[in-house]
Amino acid sequence: MRLLVQSQSTGRYLVPDDLGTPVWVISLREAGGGVVFDPETAQQLIDDHCDFDDQPAIVDIDRLGTPNDYE
What is the CA radius of gyration of the chain? Predict the structure, then answer.
């Protein structure tokens, strides 16, 4: 399982910068370093770094393009 935190309001991804501080980026290519491997860590990122307006969602990138893809 490879998970990313994505803002449903802006489409941006929450990923660590060079110092490890979470920041929002637009490009999925830039978000590669923001992959986490368990739901608890992804939820902790949301709890610590997201506002209600971000409408954060946890996206399992291994699910994309499969029969279980998000609709």
Answer: 12
